[in-house]
Model the fold of this input.
Amino acid sequence: MSVFVLRRLVTLLATLVGASLIIFLVLDALPGNAAQMLMGADASPDAVRALSVKLGLDQPLTLRYLQWLRGMAVGDLGNSYVYGTPVAGLIAERLTLTVPLAIISMSLTVTLALSAGIYTAANHNKLGDVGVMSLTQIGIALPNFWFAILLILLFSVRLQWLSAGGFAGWEDGIWPGVRSLLLPAFSLSVVQAAILARVTRSAVLEVLREDFVRTARAKGLGKREVLWSHVLRNAMIPVMTVMGLQFANLLAGTIVIENVFYLPGLGRLIFQSIANRDLIVVRNCVMLLAAMVVIVNFVVDVLYAFIDPRIKVHDL
Amino acid sequence: MSDPLTAAVGLPTTAVPSRPATGFWRRAFRHRSFVLGGALVCLVIGSALLSLVWTPWSAYEIDIASKLRPPSWSHWLGTDSFGRDIVSLLLVGARSTILVGIIAVGIGLTFGVCLGLIAAARRGWTEELIMRMSDFTFAFPAVLSAIMLAAVVGPGMVTSITAIGIFQIPIFVRVTRGSANAIWAREFVLAARASGKGAFRITIEHVLPNILSILIVQATIQFALAILAEAALSYLGLGTQPPQPSWGRMLNDAQTLLFQSPMLAVYPGAAIAVAVLGLNLLGDGLRDLLDPRLARER
Done:
């Protein structure tokens, strides 16, 4: 087991380094001169050169890349080209919104999806199954940002219960902050949960057809006992694969949803930085999001081995 | 037994009714999701094709004098803030949606399935390499790659197609390899190996047919996701650029007018939902029709 985890850990690190290289190449080397981009095409060459020196852009690429890697290791990501303040501080401030949003959405997603998926599989082809599955079918088809707009139309424009956007912050206690994240989290998770519920249902149904389920039933176990003790554990592999995949969707979703609700999170920061040509902020935000996706998938991979010992034997 | 399909096209009903293709279509036309999904998809494709030859008004001409008109006989769903006809915008918008979806899923399916099958068949360092590469690509969700591309080369349709297409590949690799590995662990593959079949033959004859239904379900989900991603990217202003109409862009314009004209935010989203719903239903139908194990149970 430990060898397996260690090997995955090495590939995790390699993936992170690879990702940082790609991000650096695309956002730093490819655009040519960031100082020129900042100042526009008609800036005087002298001013551009002065800004390059000030931002450290006159140094060789490899040196700048290594400096960035070292900076990430010690938490110093450099200063924003536009605001002049440390990038790490800008990002940390925005994470106080994006992280809670992602956590609330993911827990909502998993709760909704697993209960719906297991319920429908257990009641295969009955009225409840058909009803819930039709709902998920519609849920999958909804663009999350459109669903968000519809929620705003209903709860803010029509009923005026919740504000149409903005973030109350955490200063006045937890409730005002959570309150302003309710609609965003709900619009993020409903669509994801619909997908995950369908995957859960078909995974459970698939396992229900296996021979060992028939054996378990034949030796006298009840339907419920077989479902909870034999089926779920075996059905978890595809469910977890999709959950891992969905985490990436969720992060991408937060970028979009934050823009719908004007929430000052990581997604808004990326967009403002693109508009401001603040490439150093874009670079670090993209790296952070990519790293989160990679690490979640690492965790999923390791969990596989705990759930299904056969995978461990193969991979060792 | 009289066959409505063969009878409808005027074929003699005695002509080899047991041919698999005939059986497929006969079952297909009785399958509710397949028919409903097919109809919705045809509606979207039809709108896109129709927009090539006819739209009620020009989708590009700005007419500020008649902006934000309510629905009427001349403008069936009204006009937007530039005075453009909503119906025309929706019809033309279908084009970019379909185009981006087909190209992006095509990229993902072609590369993803091949790599996934190779990974499952070869194992060892080949699998390791493919899976690490795929993990690596997977670290960049479509919105992220689109953001990087947009920050450097600027937003546009090519940016969004590239970003969505690249993100589709690792998903297909993972799903293909995961389900193919499960098949490789089954007894009938062991039997096939014992009878001397090579990895390539086993992949084509045993693995691929057994994971086909999973791939179809995945491909429809991916097509749906590609359409949703395209909509999200153009909503954010990273995808299809104005004046080219796109459903996502229309939603962005409409959001600023939520209090004045709430319905403007409803139509484009509904169009996206119809396209995605149609594809999903169609895929579900196909899965039922193609998976013999499921078909037998019905």
